[in-house]
Amino acid sequence: MQVSCLNRLHYFPDKKTLFYLWKKDKRLIVYPLLKAVFASLISYFMLFFLDGLIGGRNILLIPSIFSILMLNVFVILIMHKSENLDFLLRLSFFRELSGKRIELVNEPSSWRKSQAIMDWQMHNGGPAINAYRLLEKRLTLLSSLLIAICYILFSSEIHHAFYLLLLVAFSLLLSFVFYKTEKNVSITLEKGIESLMENNRKGDYYFALLSSEFEKMKSIRSNNKNSFVEGKYSSFMNPMMRLFKKEEYEKTLIGLFEALSAILLVILFLALSSTSYSLTLCLSLMSLVLFFTSLFRGRSEVEINNERMRVYLEFLDLEKKKGKIEKGGKGIRLENVSYIYPGAENKAVDDVTFEFKRGRIYSIVGPNGSGKSTLVKLMLSLLSPCEGRIIAEEGLSFSYCPQSVTIFSFTLGENVAMKKGYDGNKVRSLLSSLDINEDTELKLGSDYESVGIELSGGQSQRVQIARSVFSSGSVLIMDEPTSRLDVKAEKRVYEEALRVKPGDTAVFISHRLSSSFYSDEIIVMDRGKIAASGSHEALYSSCALYREMFDEQKNQSGL
């Protein structure tokens, strides 16, 4: 009943948080309880046993010492076996959070919540570990209070019940005043901390621009605009740091006034009762006053942490939104598939029905913005169709070369294989076929520790193509794979990409029609719809859009 009331006062972490800790590791609940019992026995020893030496209660000596010693040994053993519960919980929380972030990495709606939780983790260990600390602190304080109350109730020295009740009432009043004051400070402080952490991310971004993101900074450096980014990096945090210091100072002052108020209340009680009391009774009264003055004061901290824990548990319950891909048949079949981007007026893909058969080579062509890349993202389950359905053969695996080129700060071989212990001969052979003859152990890109070579745009694109071919999925999808390559290099890319295993499928997306010569079937898209499909010869004679695009490119680049 008492614990239930304290929960309603937000004295303890809420039930969901406690259940999370219990499920994570029962010791996270048991250990704070043991520490609280240990603290209560220490208080018991100090108040009853020490007072017994001067008041004739020596009979309490043996059970007091025995209980304290046995519990002390037990707690030490638990501490030894716990292997630092604080650290284990922090590690578990980090793994759990990191795993969920990776699972939801393609869900933009979860990014902000995900980053906020990561910020909390970096700031104070996260809501889970903070709940564990709060539970430990609150239980210890409560246990000491219970012993103090027992001593006061059974003490023969208390003759002024009215003054004692008055003392408690004033303590509660002060606690409420401190709570209201601290709540405003805490809310402002927490907002400041969150802004500070958000600015920290901006600072990391600015520093990355200045230090390692050479590719992004080329145009800025060439125009001598470095000072603009440097100014952003050097000044972004100063206002937040001032706010942080100010609010922390106010919070410290509140705590100081609380302690002074407790001392003054006890002195006032002793003065009004006009009776001399023992030191142990004074200590008991001090424990009583400190508990009640802190009863409301710590509430804002618990409320904030409970809310953060609620957000975290909701985040853990989120599930990755998977595309509506059903299993069955052979190859991939799209039936009346449509997709519209949030906020857009027109559908990016509009009522598309098509079947990609096993063992065939396809090209998806069309003007910019015709829906080619969106169609592929739907096939890859990176987007979920708004209408229609996609049916894919059981066990299909995809190798995807996206439109944007990404080179990681790894070795050349690791950039292709994306794993350790790769087949070096296979990687070298693949790179050589794409006219890249560099050492596979060569470091690429730049990070905070080392600087590697910088590839040209065409080389970077070929490395990314090699990465998708190396992964050997049963469906190879390449989105604008040759946009940075000359005609000779483009031919090599298609020849290498077409060395697919019998039964595998390849899909090329391009507004350049050179891929058409390597394809069994060409899909022409226009305004989100499939305008026509067929072989090059059939489309050139029957599809005006395809013929117009082909003739234009033939005149420009000599297809």
From TrEMBL:
Keywords: ATP-binding, Membrane, Nucleotide-binding, Transmembrane, Transmembrane helix
Gene3D superfamilies cross-referenced by the UniProt entry: P-loop containing nucleotide triphosphate hydrolases (3.40.50.300)
GO MF annotation: an example: ATPase-coupled transmembrane transporter activity
Lineage top rank: taxon: Bacteria
InterPro entries for the chain: AAA+_ATPase (IPR003593), ABC_transporter-like_ATP-bd (IPR003439), ABC_transporter-like_CS (IPR017871), P-loop_NTPase (IPR027417), Type_1_exporter (IPR039421)
Transmembrane feature ranges: 28-47, 59-80, 139-155, 161-179, 252-271, 277-296
Signal peptide positions (record): none
Descriptive protein name: ATP-binding cassette domain-containing protein
PANTHER family attached to this UniProt entry: ATP-BINDING CASSETTE SUB-FAMILY B (PTHR24221), ATP-BINDING CASSETTE SUB-FAMILY B MEMBER 6 (PTHR24221:SF654)
This protein's record includes keyword Nucleotide-binding: yes
Sequence ranges assigned to domain ABC transporter in this UniProt record: 332-552
UniProt-listed CDD domains: ABCC_MRP_Like
